[in-house]
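Troubleshooting: if your tokenizer reports a length mismatch, compare your output against this known-good record of 336 residues.
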Amino acid sequence: MRTLLLRCSSVALFVLVVAAAARAAQGDPAAQLAAAQAKIAQEDPQGALDILDPLVKKQPKLAQAYLLRATARLMLDTPGGKEDLDHAIQLDPTLRQAWLDRAGVAVAEKRYPAALADFQKARELQPDDPDALLNIAAVELLMGKLDDASKGFDAYLGLKPGDAQAHYMVARNYALAGYAGLAIQTLQQAVALDERMRAAARADANFNDLKSNARFQQLLATDGYKPPANAFHAQRSYPAAYAAGRGPLLPATMDALSAVGEAFQPQVEVAPDWAVLWGAMRVKLTDAGQGGSVELTAAPNAMTPAEWQQRSARLLDSINIQIAKRKPRGAAKPPG
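Known-good structure output:
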């Protein structure tokens, strides 16, 4: 199932202190609201309702209680959630989160004009929030208003010129709405800012309709990384193939990183001709001759030259050890 690509943040979470539980037990509305929010954060909507149902009876004009109860009811998919949002807005029209949540419900139900109106109201309440532009443009795109949506997306990106995630969000919206050219163009900009956006797009169901698009496939297949000036660099060949991630080189490299204590991100990008892992070092794997190759790079400010020499050599040596562990017993040793 495709997910909404809007920045409708869930109900803001409060940090509970130990005394909050005691105040909640004593009937303090603020403490009860905080306790209900904590239940929602713990994905326990029924526990939140157990707190909120008595609270709204005692405090029928407490808008925040209706907002939280709406969230709990919508999580449980039980009746009354939308009505609670309406009631929260009636009690406090400045409660921005209620407008955002009601807009999100309208988008899910494909009531786009209603969603647009609520997002616009939320923006009036906080005009300096860049995500308001994203929300409005996303709904305009769903309504087929491409020109208006594109202007809104451009304005949003103008406020976040170096933000790869912002470009990625816009690309996802274009892809979801079927605008392949605009989606790929914006995704290219996101990847140029942070190559990890390419890895994210590779696994993102919202780009599924582009899988047969030659430009999209070219983007996914191209490693356009350019190391910064004076970057550290090391490379070594091994008697183990990469083989599109199916050979022993990738698991051996991952085990080696763990063995030497080099932290790396769980996101690993695996392409037919190469793979990339990210940490203090960028680790790239490819096939080379009868085996494979591992290339390490790091920014010049990531560590001292002495640290680089020690850490890179230790990792490259450890890869050899991990490859040897994977050889079947009795296997012939490589020449030399």
